[in-house]
Automatic annotation (TrEMBL):
SUPFAM superfamilies: S-adenosyl-L-methionine-dependent methyltransferases. This is Methyltransferase domain-containing protein. InterPro entries: SAM-dependent_MTases_sf. PANTHER family: TRANS-ACONITATE 2-METHYLTRANSFERASE-RELATED.
Length: 200
């Protein structure tokens, strides 16, 4: 499925307008974002990995006085972030190559990490560790079990992958994070499998 994985960025680039409309402004993630914010200091710095168009997740974090740095490989998505929130930092970059040489109070990778193949996902936990300040929170979504799946978006194949849940837990531990909360297929949040961990 390597070829499908390589197409993910292009799909979001080509369909940025449609994705913005389809995603909409409904914030089902609010309870989880509030749990994430509760672990952060006032006016925290937050790194949003795979930030998309900045709405509604980054928008909510901005409203909660977060100082945002967003990264996405689709320049069309980053352009929308820059238009919406010009006072924050938005970078066009492959998440696998992020090396900002600074640390953040929080890191979010919502519905982004799972577009990477398994080995690339494993490497991202080093990236989390490299960018996490002492006590930082990290929150991300995964699949409910190990495997690869190819769905569709606007008629194009859209790749997803997941590691085993025990492996995610081990990777967090090995990179200095303790799991604070973890729910598999949360029925209150679109059946997302969600991880919230904190740097020890």
């Amino acid at each position: 499925m390597a070829s499908e994985a390589d197409q993910v960025v292009g799909i979001y680039q080509r369909h940025a307008d449609a994705w913005s409309r389809d995603r909409g402004d409904e914030l089902r993630e609010k309870p989880w974002l509030d749990r994430f914010l509760a672990l952060l200091p006032p006016r925290p710095t937050v790194l949003d990995i795979g930030c998309g168009n900045g709405a509604p997740i980054a928008r909510y974090l901005v409203e909660q006085q977060c100082r945002m740095t967003g990264v996405d490989a689709a320049s069309a998505m980053i352009a929308r972030c820059r238009d919406r929130f010009p006072e924050h930092e938005w970078l066009v970059a492959d998440m696998r190559a992020v090396a900002l040489h600074r640390r953040f109070d929080g890191i979010v990778a919502w519905n982004s990490l799972f577009h990477l193949p398994a080995e690339d996902q494993r490497q991202m936990f080093t990236t989390f560790g490299d960018h996490a300040a002492p006590g930082a929170a990290v929150m991300f979504t995964s699949g409910p079990a190990a495997g690869e799946q190819v769905g569709t978006y606007r008629g194009e194949p859209l790749y997803h992958a997941s590691l085993d849940l025990d492996e995610y837990r081990a990777l967090l531990h090995d990179n200095g994070f303790d799991v604070a909360t973890q729910v598999v297929e949360d029925p209150s949040c679109g059946r997302h499998t969600i991880w919230l961990a904190q740097r020890t």
